[in-house]
From TrEMBL, chain A:
It is an enzyme of class 4 (lyase). It comes from Rothia amarae. The keyword Metal-binding does not apply. This is Tryptophan synthase alpha chain. Keywords: Amino-acid biosynthesis, Aromatic amino acid biosynthesis, Lyase, Tryptophan biosynthesis. The gene is trpA. Its EC number is 4.2.1.20. The active site is at 74 (proton acceptor), 85 (proton acceptor). Pathway: Amino-acid biosynthesis; L-tryptophan biosynthesis; L-tryptophan from chorismate: step 5/5. Signal peptide: none annotated. GO terms for cellular component: cytosol. PANTHER family: TRYPTOPHAN SYNTHASE ALPHA CHAIN, CHLOROPLASTIC, TRYPTOPHAN SYNTHASE, ALPHA CHAIN. Pfam families: Trp_syntA. The alpha subunit is responsible for the aldol cleavage of indoleglycerol phosphate to indole and glyceraldehyde 3-phosphate. Tetramer of two alpha and two beta chains.
TrEMBL record, chain B:
The gene is trpB. The lineage of its organism: Bacteria, Bacillati, Actinomycetota, Actinomycetes, Micrococcales. It catalyses: (1S,2R)-1-C-(indol-3-yl)glycerol 3-phosphate + L-serine = D-glyceraldehyde 3-phosphate + L-tryptophan + H2O. Gene3D superfamilies: 3.40.50.1100. One of its GO terms (cellular component) is cytoplasm. The beta subunit is responsible for the synthesis of L-tryptophan from indole and L-serine. Pathway: Amino-acid biosynthesis; L-tryptophan biosynthesis; L-tryptophan from chorismate: step 5/5. Keywords: Amino-acid biosynthesis, Aromatic amino acid biosynthesis, Lyase, Pyridoxal phosphate, Tryptophan biosynthesis. Its cofactor is pyridoxal 5'-phosphate. Tetramer of two alpha and two beta chains. This is Tryptophan synthase beta chain. It comes from Rothia amarae. One of its GO terms (molecular function) is tryptophan synthase activity. Residues 72-386 form the Tryptophan synthase beta chain-like PALP domain. Residues 434-445 have a biased composition (Basic and acidic residues).
Length: 283, 445
């Protein structure tokens, strides 16, 4: 479904008609974030790509991540053209594809991780693999496997008519990205279109650990809150406990990616668990 | 998406004209599938472009530079000796190879560089396959005093080393992209990453009529002169419209520029030739429309070469400029409605046509353009087979999108050229020339 369908009235929801699905009352993400808030801490969101270095090891690493402090796991679907990822994740996902990653491995990973720990499992995916698989079919299988929502780095609400309908059908959360460059108008639209949380991109640029986290993230979170975003998690650039504390002071969740992939590269699932404990302030 | 465009979409003009389709969608193709980080830049670009094309001052400056700097209008040259190999169909070549920098790419680059200036951007980035677009962008950056960074697949920097040197000489920084398939699509990925990080001062000068809105409609607009001029020139020269027009299609910028003026001339057959590589029965090709499936890449829904998991498949072509697994969304649409016939041309067919043009007309075309020549030759010979007499009355215009100087390395290898005959061999050799000279000498005695 496209912009054009939205115009002809074929789409139930669209940016053009300013119609979005009602808030997801079954949202596992919202419930998890609420629980973290009640405990007086930000949610820790950890990213790892499925299939790197192998499907087995990626599942083992994600379970370690979930058992050692991550509240939400963001499973990355390896893609041939990852324009929003930096060199570390690019290299890892390229290797995953070379090692035979298949899209359906995502369902198995989701199922096994959900069974082994309390973390809520989301998927971070570029849109073409989902389109090719079938948006409805992917959502159905992912939801049956226990998944909670999709983070979509190259799908903006403007093109998401089909996803609005399908996500509502299966009770999945829609996590859209917000950027420092986003206009106030777009921040309102993104806040209304998202469920679970909004993913705030804290520095201009692609993923990769930065030495310090930009102050601009703080104002982006404030702007998203004024625009009505239910929860805001901040990503890109987090590698240390002090980043988590700094961002956790104003955001509902802190997203860590590249640092975890590096840990997995150098020390396997065990190192991922260790970094998770450190980031969560458990040691 | 701007209110203006939404309005244009909600109230389409009451006509069945295919011209001036504003985007963002062409049928079900196109759109704006971009990361949020770039949406502000896309909106700014769209707004600037919409204002500029209605602005007399902007258009006069664009046309002045096209005329005085790029060398427009380009010639339309008849190719009578080449026609003898095409069943007698009269061939005309739209000489984009005679533009400054040697290809059609300069048209779009001048237009977008002027827009960048209007937006206050001081840095131009670009992707390039064959290097033609990179050279054109480096040229415009030098002309406007802007910084320039060109992303080029590592594989392409090797097969087009001469163009790397040209860009460097023009003051551009050339980055050899080492990710993915190390060709055009990966150069675009890397340029997008650069743009996300530097969008404040940088304009991404996309070189083809693909990508997210407004690029496809905007790039077509800046290349519109190709077809508009050709349409006038052919009528001046022959008193009528052509029977067929042809262009090569990678992303499809020269093709959409060539086709646009003729879209509403329903008697003119339009042909787009894709890179068939080793052949479309092999996995090594770039015949996106012929064998691809619709999907999303680089900001638009369009035909893509992809596997069953939606991973983009590496394309293959002897021509770096056509080596792209996607295609401009308007081409996908023109294919589906049957207005344009898109057909594959293999490496071997293209190289044969390249040599034929060199030796019949004294024009060395780019390998990209040679795909259009080869395809048009095939169509013309089919016409001649059906109606040998009628074929002699027919006219075909081929867009000669670029010159072949940059492809000498490839030609050298393909045709095993470059070794001159040593003069010492002439005294003992038995070439015709030597024999003739000997005969003349004996007569004189």
């Amino acid at each position: 479904m496209t912009y054009q369908d939205a115009i002809s009235g074929a789409a139930k929801y669209s940016v053009l008609n300013k119609s979005f699905p009602a808030p997801n009352t079954d949202s596992k993400l919202a419930a998890k974030i609420a629980q973290c808030k009640a405990e007086g801490r930000p949610a820790l969101v950890g990213y790892l790509p499925v299939g790197y270095p192998s499907v087995e090891e990626s599942i083992a690493a994600a379970i370690e991540l979930g058992k050692n402090g991550a509240d939400i796991i963001e499973l990355g679907i390896p893609y041939s053209d990852p324009v929003m990822d930096g060199p570390v994740i690019q290299k890892a996902t390229e290797e995953a594809i070379e090692n035979g990653f298949r899209l359906t491995d995502t369902f198995r990973a989701t199922r096994e991780i959900t069974a082994a720990c309390d973390a809520v499992v989301t998927v971070m995916t570029y849109w073409n693999p989902i389109l090719r698989f079938g948006v409805d079919e992917f959502a159905r299988e992912f939801s049956e496997a226990g998944g909670s929502g999709l983070i979509t780095p190259d799908l903006v609400p403007n093109e998401a008519s089909e996803w609005f309908e399908v996500s509502e059908k299966y009770g999945l959360d829609r996590i859209f990205l917000a950027a420092i460059s986003s206009s106030t108008e777009r921040l309102h639209m993104i806040s209304e279109a998202s469920s679970g949380f909004v993913y705030a991109v804290s520095v201009m640029g692609v993923t990769g650990a930065r030495s310090s986290v930009n102050n601009a993230a703080h104002s982006l979170v404030e702007n998203l809150r004024s625009a009505g975003a239910p929860n805001v998690c901040v990503g890109l650039g987090v590698s240390k406990r002090e980043h988590v504390e700094e961002i956790g002071a104003y955001a509902d969740g802190v997203i860590v990616g590249t640092a975890l992939v590096k840990a997995l590269q150098s020390g396997g699932p065990e190192a991922v668990g260790q970094l998770a404990r450190e980031l969560a302030g458990r040691q | 998406m701007s209110e203006q465009l939404a309005d244009a979409f909600l109230n389409p003009q009451e006509s069945d004209s295919l011209k001036n389709a504003p985007g963002p969608y062409f049928g079900k193709y196109g759109g704006q599938w971009m990361p949020e980080s770039l949406m502000a830049a896309m909106e700014e670009l769209e707004e600037t472009f919409n204002k500029a094309k209605e602005d007399t001052e902007f258009m006069e400056e664009f046309q002045r530079l096209s005329r005085e700097y790029s060398n427009r209008p380009s010639l339309l040259t008849e190719a009578p000796r080449f026609s003898e190999h095409a069943g007698g169909v009269r061939f005309f070549l739209k000489r984009e190879d005679l533009n400054h920098t040697g290809s059609h790419k300069i048209n779009n680059v001048i237009g977008q560089a002027l827009l960048a200036k209007r937006m206050g951007k001081t840095r131009l980035i670009a992707e390039t396959g064959a290097g033609q677009h990179g050279v054109a962008t480096a040229t415009a950056a030098a002309l406007f005093g802007m910084e320039c960074v060109v992303y080029m697949g590592e594989e392409d920097t090797e097969r087009q080393a001469l163009n790397v040197a040209r860009m460097q000489l023009l003051g551009a920084t050339v980055i050899a992209v080492q990710t993915g398939s190390r060709t055009l699509k990966d150069a675009i990925n890397e340029a997008l990453r650069d743009w996300v990080a530097n969008v404040e001062n940088t304009h991404y000068l996309l070189g083809t009529a693909a990508g997210a809105h407004p690029f496809p409609a905007m790039v077509r607009f800046f290349h519109d002169a190709i077809g508009t001029e050709a349409r006038e020139q052919i009528q001046e020269l022959t008193g009528k419209l052509p029977d067929g027009i042809a262009a090569c299609v990678g992303g499809g910028s020269n093709a959409i520029g060539m086709f646009h003026a003729f879209l509403d001339d329903r008697d003119v057959q339009i042909f787009g030739f894709e890179a068939g590589g080793d052949g479309i029965d092999t996995p090594r090709h770039a015949a996106t429309i012929n064998l691809g499936r619709p999907g999303v890449l680089h900001g638009a829904v369009t035909y893509l070469m992809q596997n069953e998991d939606g991973q983009i498949i590496e394309s293959h072509s002897i021509s770096a400029g056509l080596d792209y697994p996607g295609v401009g969304p308007e081409h996908s649409y023109l294919n589906d409605i049957g207005r344009v016939s898109y057909q594959p041309v293999t490496d071997a067919e293209a190289m044969d046509a390249l040599r034929l043009l060199c030796q019949t007309e004294g024009i060395i075309p780019a390998i990209e353009s040679a795909h259009a020549l080869a395809g048009a030759l095939r169509v013309a010979n089919e016409w001649a087979k059906e109606d040998p007499e009628g074929a002699r009355e027919k006219i075909m215009i081929v867009c000669l999108s670029g010159r072949g100087d940059k492809d000498m390395g490839t030609a050298l290898e393909w045709f095993k050229l470059g070794k001159a005959i040593p003069s010492s061999s002439l005294t003992t050799g038995n070439t015709e020339a030597t024999n003739e000279r000997k005969a003349q000498k004996s007569e004189q005695k």
